[in-house]
Amino acid sequence: MNIRSIATVSLSGSLDEKLRAIAFAGFEEVEIFEADLLSFNGSPRDVRKMCEDLNLKICAFQPFRDFEGMPEPLRSRNFVRAERKFELMQQLGTGLLLVCSNISPAAIGGLDRAAADFHELGERAKEYNIKVGYEALAWGVHVNDYRDAWEIVRRADHGNIGVILDSFHTLAPGFPTNSIASIPPEKIFLVQLADAPKLGLDVLSWSRHFRCFPGQGDLPVVRFMEAVQTAGYRGPWSLEIFNDQFRAGSAVRTAADGLRSLIQLQDQLSDQPKVLQPKSQTLGVGFIEFAVNEGKAEDFSVLLNQLGFRKSGLHRSKNVSRWSQGEINLVVNCEPDGFAHSHYIAHGAGVCAIALEVGNAQQAMARAEALKARTFYQPVGLGELEIPAIHGVGGSLLYFLDETRDNWDTDFVKLEASPSSEHLIAVDHISQSMPYDEMLSWLLFYTGILDLQRLPQTEVPDPSGLVQSQALVAPNGSLRLILNGSSATRTLSNRFIAEFFGSGVQHIAFSCSDIFQTISAMRARGARFLRIPDNYYDDIEAKYGLDPMMMRALRDNHILYDRDGEGQFFQCYTEPFDDRFFFEIVERRAYAGFGAPNAGVRLAAQSRDTRSFTVPRV
């Protein structure tokens, strides 16, 4: 088992709050960032005592800047500064100082000059029983490559001087990782880890604002760690993340995500013991559960009838009904107590649980628990099925169903319904809104537990700001999730969060084989749909040259259209239910996306038609 560490700079809050969050998450070690110590209202010995009480070892103190290659009198002053840091570190109880490559314009280049400085620093560090690790910053003035940093350490030839390897500073500039294997393991004093999305930024801005945990970005962190392991390094794996979202969010949540990312990373390495069950294949959505009260249930039943759903079952012991159409199963829970009722009290009417069909429910549950997901249990009636579950977005539940548990509907008394023409086939995708600073957390959650692949993140223009949208798709297409977040407070996504009192499912898309027949049948039963402006259809007609009959059908039914190569996509939205969530009807014709070009038009239409959000009626 590798040693898991994190730098305090990765989290929000004061130093004591950060340390408690780090210990609570389950880390064994911590790097103390100098700025956190300087702003802490306590002595270094107080920090040491706090870490000891939390069973945290301080693996490093960092950073020590602008050291090597400085002219006099700055060079002499640097050694005085260093010895003061060594004294402080003895009070902290840590034996490793991180020195990052010089970024001062006064610095003088030359490998031998830098090596001589580090040899002398090693002599002084030896007197304090302290080691010094040298890290190449990707924007260093003379040293920005770990290979040059290692060459300086090699030439310094001192037992107290080693190298610190950082995945971001290696991978972001595109340096090869194969040279890492040639570094003697005893000279690698620490390995720091960070991922990042692909962005067209200078490396300094990229590093300072957009680092993220392994698995949340696009850098080949696994390849980096494979090289580190080949070198024989067996020391701490330490996360060092500079990220505006993390510094604005919950320290407890961020620390938990950090540990989750290291567990997943270890499991991906070929020479590491497997700590996780394999990802169980995702097979689709078993059912979606809505929490409502009896008054809202009546209105909701009217909407479901309009959409062609039939009441197919009543729970044997609870005020819960099942509604079906095609392969879609919706559960409407009106119980006056229990989890669904608590969810309704907290959030109002909405989705309180999603049941996913997987290849092996127990395997999926074991993996989720190993990744520190919060499990959920509640009493069930005699003879009723207990379905394994974990807590998901906004406190909702995620159930796991497999072939041993696909008889969940035995809890329901089946109702005989008159035959009806079913137009809806299956759940196409589920869209969840959340605060922007939680998006990376739930991305890691879903991709860690389920076999979901990330599509490129997109920006959707809302009349009141930009919404970031992240699609996650199962390889077999059986499950599609959309995560939406925005830092603009007045976007529809954030207004939903305010109305819903937290993150949750904002809309569910159902697939059909003929959207024109489907919408026509729904309108005949009284369903009402979002009105799309004529200007949109004028543009579509000019853009795609659709025949007049198609254009008339699109206009008359307020259906949105998109094309990708030969693929075509049709989508139509219901009006919101209780100003909280809505449904989407889609038809795919060899089309894999989600109609992103239409999202801005849809959001503008919804913003126009949606009343100002107020405190929900419960």
Characterization of this structure:
- With 618 residues, the protein is α/β, with parallel strands linked by helices.
- The protein folds into 3 domains: 4-268, TIM Barrel, CATH 3.20.20.150; 282-414, 2,3-Dihydroxybiphenyl 1,2-Dioxygenase, domain 1 (Roll); 424-609, 2,3-Dihydroxybiphenyl 1,2-Dioxygenase, domain 1.
- Helix content is 35%, strand content 25%.
- The strands form 3 sheets. The protein has a 9-stranded mixed beta sheet. Strands 18, 19, 20, 21, 22, 23, 24, 25 and 26 form a 9-stranded mixed beta sheet that branches.
- Helix 1 (15-25) packs across helix 11, helix 3 (44-53) crosses helix 4 and helix 11 runs parallel beside helix 15.
- The longest helix has 19 residues, at 74-92.
- It is elongated and about 90 Å long.
- The relative contact order is 0.08.
- Residues 611-618 have low confidence and may be disordered.
In short:
The protein is an alpha/beta fold and 618 residues long.
Global shape: elongated
CATH C-level class of the largest domain is Alpha Beta
Uncertain runs: 611-618
Tell me how many strands there are: 26
Give a short account of the largest sheet.
9 strands, mixed
Look up the CATH topology of the largest domain.
TIM Barrel
Layout of helices and strands:
Layout: E1 4-7, H1 15-25, E2 29-33, H2 34-38, H3 44-53, E3 57-64, H4 74-92, E4 96-100, H5 111-127, E5 131-135, H6 146-156, E6 161-166, H7 167-171, E7 188-193, H8 203-210, H9 221-231, E8 237-239, H10 244-248, H11 251-268, E9 282-291, H12 294-306, E10 310-315, E11 320-325, E12 328-333, H13 339-347, E13 350-358, H14 361-370, E14 375-376, E15 389-391, E16 397-401, E17 412-414, E18 424-433, H15 439-449, E19 453-454, E20 458-462, E21 465-473, E22 480-485, H16 492-500, E23 504-512, H17 515-524, H18 534-544, H19 548-557, E24 560-564, E25 567-573, E26 582-589, H20 596-609
Parallel strand pairs: 1-2, 1-8, 2-3, 3-4, 4-5, 5-6, 6-7, 7-8, 9-12, 13-16, 18-22, 23-26
Antiparallel strand pairs: 9-13, 10-11, 10-17, 11-12, 14-15, 15-16, 18-23, 19-21, 20-21, 21-22, 24-25, 25-26
Helix pairs in contact: 1-11, 3-4, 5-6, 11-15
